[in-house]
Amino acid sequence: MSTAIALDALDLAALLCSRVCHDLISPTGAIVNGLEVLEEKESDQETKNFALELIKKSARTASSRLQFCRLAFGAAGSAGAQIDLSDAETMARAFIEDDRTKLVWNLPRVLLPKNKVKLLLNMLIISSQTIPRGGTLIVNPLGENGNMGFRIAASGLNARIPQAVPALVAGSSETGAIDAHAVQPFYAGLLARACGLKIELAGEADTIIISAG
Questions:
Q1: For residues 187 and 73, is the Cβ–Cβ distance under 8 A?
Q2: Which secondary-structure segment (H or E) carries 67?
Q3: Strand runs labelled E in the chain
Q4: pTM for the complete prediction?
Q5: At what angle do helices 9-39 and 183-194 cross, to 10 degrees?
Q6: pLDDT one digit per residue (tens) for the chain, 213 residues
Q7: Where do the structural domains in the chain lie, given as residue ranges?
Q8: CA atoms of 169 and 182, how far apart (whole Å)
Q9: What phi and psi, each to the nearest 5 degrees, are found at residue 154?
Q10: Residues 113, 195: contact at Cβ < 8 Å?
């Protein structure tokens, strides 16, 4: 049986900060390792070239993750601000797309309230986690303009809904507590309710549907 999660503002902020730091540890660590290789006098030129490429790739990854997290978790723009969905698309592609995962974006280029765009990006994070071996994420609108919600279809081999996620987006967990790993779907649920929407997840063969409408 699930218990409602009681989390004060300070704990929520701390857990979200931990989540962002977790996303940045890998690329920043790779940059540090690459710089250490460049500083080694005994490293040959081929090794130094490899280290330099690693630094460049990791710096791009860190930058894209920072920009995405700033919008998905941060206070981008002023209170009540609206955000262009084309800007959200650019950040989402840089964050999600790689040699295993493709993003199909079928949303119109419109301005939406900041919290609704944050909700969309958080839904994309959850959707990407349902296809651990990669696949395709297809984003479509539900409704129009100010009433717009979202529907994301995640298709891939062994697609599955992580066991704890439905309860977390509904605001509960088995113990009534969460850690930095679980805070993101919980936060997505908070955003949905703030927008007057409800997140639903369903499985269809090798496709997971996550919608908010």
A1: yes
A2: helix 45-73
A3: 3-4, 82-84, 101-105, 111-113, 135-142, 149-155, 172-173, 199-204, 207-212
A4: 0.92
A5: 130
A6: 789 998 999 999 999 999 999 999 999 999 999 999 999 877 888 999 999 999 999 999 999 999 999 999 987 655 668 999 999 999 999 999 999 999 999 999 999 999 999 999 999 999 999 999 999 999 999 987 778 999 999 999 999 999 999 999 999 998 888 999 999 999 999 999 999 999 999 998 899 999 999
A7: 3-212
A8: 10
A9: -105, 115
A10: yes
Q: Which residue has the tokens 């919608």?
A: 211
Point out which residues pair with 95 in neighbouring strands: none
d(CA 13, CA 20): 11
Q: Are 183 and 189 in contact (CB under 8 A)?
A: no
Retrieve residue 105's tokens.
Answer: 């974006």
Structure tokens of 174? 């088995």
- In the chain, the amino acid numbered 105 is W
Q: What is the C-alpha separation between 156 and 173, in angstroms, rounded?
A: 27
Cα-only R_g, the chain = 19
Q: Retrieve residue 83's tokens.
A: 């955000």
The domain defined by 3-212 carries CATH number 3.30.565.10: yes
Q: Which two tokens stand for residue 196?
A: 């007057």
Structure tokens at 59: 């710096």
Pick the closest to residue 123 from 146, 144, 140 (CA basis).
Answer: 140
Which of 157, 131, 93 has its CA nearest to residue 210? 131
Residue 106's H or E segment, with its range, is none
